[in-house]
Specification:
mainly alpha
Length: 123
C-alpha cells in the first residue's frame, strides 16, 4: 500500500498574487512584427524576381530575334556586294590581261619596226 504524503499549501493562498505583463513581451512582439515585415518584403522581392525571370526571357528572345533578322539582312547585303565586287574584279582582271596582251603585241611590233629601220610613229 502506497503511503500518501500531505503537502502544506496554506502558504500559497496566504499571499496575494499580482499578475503583470511580462516586460519582454512588448519587445518580443516588436521583434515578431519586424521579422514578419522583413519576411514579407523578402517574399515580395522574390516574387517580383520570379515574375521578371519568366517575362524577361520572352522579351529578350523577341529582341534577339529582331536583331538576328537585322543581322541576317545585313549579311545578305554584304554577300551581294561581295559577289558584285568579285564579278567586277574578275572583269577588270580580264580587261587588264587583254590590254597587257595588246601592249605586248604593240611592243613587239615597235621592236620589229625599230630593227627594220623604220621611223618611229608620230603621235
Amino acid at each position: 500500500m502506497a503511503s500518501r504524503v500531505r503537502y502544506d499549501n496554506r502558504e500559497l493562498t496566504a499571499t496575494s498574487l499580482l499578475l503583470t505583463p511580462d516586460p519582454t513581451y512588448r519587445h518580443k512582439r516588436l521583434l515578431r512584427l519586424w521579422g514578419s515585415l522583413i519576411l514579407l518584403i523578402a517574399v515580395a522581392a522574390l516574387g517580383v524576381r520570379q515574375f521578371e525571370d519568366r517575362i524577361a526571357p520572352e522579351s529578350y528572345l523577341s529582341r534577339m530575334r529582331q536583331e538576328n533578322g537585322e543581322l541576317r539582312d545585313a549579311l545578305n547585303k554584304a554577300r551581294f556586294d561581295l559577289e558584285v565586287e568579285l564579278a567586277t574584279r574578275g572583269e577588270l582582271e580580264r580587261q587588264v590581261g587583254g590590254l597587257n596582251d595588246e601592249l605586248k603585241q604593240v611592243r613587239e611590233e615597235l621592236a620589229f619596226l625599230k630593227s627594220a629601220g623604220a621611223p618611229a610613229p608620230r603621235r
